[in-house]
Amino acid sequence: MPDFKQNYFQKRTKPKGPRSNNRITSHEVQVIASDGENLGILNLNDAINRAKDEGLDLIEIAPNAKPPVCKIMDMGKYKYDAQKKANKAKKKQKKIELKEIKLRPVTEVHDYTFKIKNAQKFLAKGDKVKFTIRFKGRELQHSSLGNELMDKIKQDMQDIGRVELQPKFDGKQMIMVIQPL
Length: 181
Known about the structure:
alpha/beta, Ubiquitin-like (UB roll), Translation Initiation Factor IF3, 4-stranded mixed sheet, 5 helices, elongated
C-alpha cells in the first residue's frame, strides 16, 4: 500500500523546454556550433562530446526536421533568452475588451448623450462597444423606435468606430456591436 501512495502523489509533469544532451532521441543530428558554424550531420554521441568539450550543452532546436537540428550552447542562457522573448511578446499584446452600454427605446436625450460619450471613450481606448436596447412589455410592438435609436447611434459613432455586428433582435432586446477604426 505505501508503494501505491508514493506513486499516486508523485509529480506528473513532462520536462519543459527543448530536449538536451542525453534526452535527444535521434541517432543522428544536424549540429550548429556555438559560433554559428554548421558542423553538418553527426552521430549523437559525437555531438554531445563536442558540446561537453566546450563546456556547453547540445540543445535540440528543430525536433521535427530530418535529421533534428541541434545547437551547442548553454542551456541556462537558452531558457533565459526564451523567457525574455515570451515576456516581451506578452507585453506588446493588446487585449480588446467588449464594453456594454444598455439603453431603452424611451431613453431621454441627456442620458443618451452621457452614454454616447462613454462609448466614445471606450472606442478611443481600443475596446469594442456593444449597444443593447431592452424592450419591456408592449414596447416590443414599437420596434421602429429601437431601429431609429440604433441609426442615431451609428450616425454619432461613424467618425470613431464602424459597425461590426448590424442591429438585430435577440429575444426582447436589440443588439449592435461597434469596433474602433
